[in-house]
């Protein structure tokens, strides 16, 4: 949703700048038509039944960024010095990264992460170790391809490092080689009082130590 709004705002600014010298009524009508066409074009990009090759490439880039964002959300959720509402908001963003909470919990389990739902914080293992994580070496192992069941599917490979955050020194606790099955599928989103089915990215099946 934020991505859509950013794109629409940027396109709106371009239209306004290109029309700043127009002062008569005909120019106002033209500007209105341009705005209508611009918003329609953006809407079509996210609601069309099939994605263009350019849009598929853009979604692959977005999937990589979404994976980088995931590490940031985890670090916020694991930082008990932050207000609880910040940590819970980060948890919500983590959950929205995955197709369902089940996939999210599988992800935690595979990394030996443990949630304290009362305090609202994420720890490393049952030893309750404060930690930080890094996700790097991201590679698009399988580009997005048309999938009958979910729209489009691909695969990301990456490595994820877990560091002890209780020590003055940077101590590497673990490093995982990971695969994420990634889907782009239609999801119902609310825009004001109306709902629309738009293309969204989710991480689904998780495979470690490939």
Overall description:
The protein has 210 residues and is α+β, with helices and mostly antiparallel strands. The chain has a single domain (51-208), classed as Nuclear Transport Factor 2, Chain: A (Roll), CATH 3.10.450. It contains 5 helices and 6 strands, in the order αααααββββββ. The protein has helices at residues 2-18, 25-47, 53-77, 84-97, 101-110, and strands at 113-116, 121-124, 131-147, 151-164, 171-191, 194-208. The strands form 2 sheets. It has a 4-stranded antiparallel sheet with strand order 3-4-5-6. A two-stranded antiparallel sheet has the order 1-2. α1 packs antiparallel against α2 (25-47) and α3 (53-77) packs antiparallel against α4 (84-97). The chain is globular, with a radius of gyration of 21 Å.
Give a brief description.
The protein is of the alpha+beta class.
Notable features of this structure?
210 residues, alpha+beta, Nuclear Transport Factor 2, Chain: A, four-stranded antiparallel sheet, two-stranded antiparallel sheet, 5 helices, 6 strands, disordered N terminus
In the predicted model, the low-confidence regions spanning at least 5 consecutive residues are 1-29, 34-44
Which architecture would the CATH scheme give at its second level? Roll
Q: What's the total number of strands?
A: 6
Helix content estimate: 40-55%
- Measured between the Cα atoms of the first and last residue, the distance is 33 Å
């Amino acid at each position: 949703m934020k991505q859509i709004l950013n794109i629409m705002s940027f396109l709106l600014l371009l239209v306004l700048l290109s029309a700043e010298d127009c002062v008569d009524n005909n120019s106002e009508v033209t500007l209105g038509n341009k705005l209508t066409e611009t918003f329609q074009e953006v809407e079509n990009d996210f609601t069309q039944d099939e994605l263009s090759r350019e849009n598929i490439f853009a979604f692959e880039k977005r999937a990589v960024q979404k994976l980088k964002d995931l590490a940031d959300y985890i670090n916020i959720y694991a930082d008990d010095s932050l207000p609880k509402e910040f940590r819970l908001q980060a948890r919500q963003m983590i959950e929205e990264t995955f197709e369902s909470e089940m996939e999210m919990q599988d992800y935690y389990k595979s990394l030996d992460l443990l949630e304290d739902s009362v305090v609202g914080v994420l720890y490393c293992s049952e030893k309750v170790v404060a930690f930080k994580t890094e996700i790097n070496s991201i590679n698009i192992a399988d580009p997005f391809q048309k999938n009958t069941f979910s729209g489009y599917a691909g695969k990301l490979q990456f490595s994820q490092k877990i560091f002890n955050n209780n020590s003055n020194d940077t101590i590497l606790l673990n490093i995982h080689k990971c695969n994420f099955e990634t889907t782009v599928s239609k999801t119902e989103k609310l825009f004001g009082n109306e709902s629309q089915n738009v293309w969204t990215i989710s991480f689904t099946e998780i495979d470690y130590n490939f």
